[in-house]
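User: I'm putting together a teaching handout on how multi-component assemblies are represented. Below are the sequence lines for each component of a complex, exactly as they appear in our records. Could you produce the 3D structure of the whole assembly as structure tokens, so the students can see both representations side by side? Please keep the chain order the same as the input.
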Amino acid sequence: MKKTVHVFKALSEEIRLRIMALLEEGELCVCDLMAVLGLPQSTVSRHLAYLRHAGLVEGERRGMWMYYRLADRADGLAGELRLLLARCLPDLELIRQDRQALADYLARKDQDTCN
Amino acid sequence: MKKTVHVFKALSEEIRLRIMALLEEGELCVCDLMAVLGLPQSTVSRHLAYLRHAGLVEGERRGMWMYYRLADRADGLAGELRLLLARCLPDLELIRQDRQALADYLARKDQDTCN
DNA sequence: CCTGTATATCCGCATAAGCGGATAATATCA
DNA sequence: TGATATTATCCGCTTATGCGGATATACAGG
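Assistant: Of course. Below is the structure of the complete assembly, with chains in the same order as your input.
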């Protein structure tokens, strides 16, 4: 029961819902999320840690970067909630804005790499 | 977005999840929930108010009693969450115990009425 | 009205949770 | 090893949340 409550708590915060929606687009590192959300690093890392402890997200270090993605083998509740979020979050204007900001950011990032 | 967060907050509390599971069995008044959960009246009423404000539950006064039930016309998110809870909550031992306690309580109640 | 019952709300208190700058830990590269 | 970049954690602070006794409100019956 504690675990169930913890999963719901993890999703009952605006920034964490926005992060979940962004990770739905694919894995991202902390600095990607900082740039798109416009939030300080400690805030982003803290929320990612919360989501990770709830089993909703998993991280993998590659070099200096920590890449986060939605947890693959999410058990019953977490898995169902992921599907639910995928259906319901795009209804929210702020979520759509974030996803557009992510697309813009990734385009800019790729372009810079070519310079 | 605030509404979405509010709905998740409503479900990220043990007592409120237990209440949701009990109301899945049918409408109940505050004193029924007090008896089954073994909690003081102010605590039960407060949690019911929280669930009501989140649109997950609705109440109807009949005489001296307020009967609460799961909200019928739950919109997108609330509706999806109700289905999800119906699937996932019975996995939890505490929830099954509560439902058994409810069944016992209702049986006793009916019997007393016949006296 | 007055009394008793059921429920909602108020209140002060204790704990939890979010914030973001500061610091520590980890990794890369010279 | 030293300098730099990325991320995690610590810290003090503020706000939010839950608690349950006390009080207020709503209703039924005399």
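A couple of points students might notice: The first helix of chain B runs from residue 2 to 11. Residues 24 and 38 of chain B are 19 Å apart (CA to CA).
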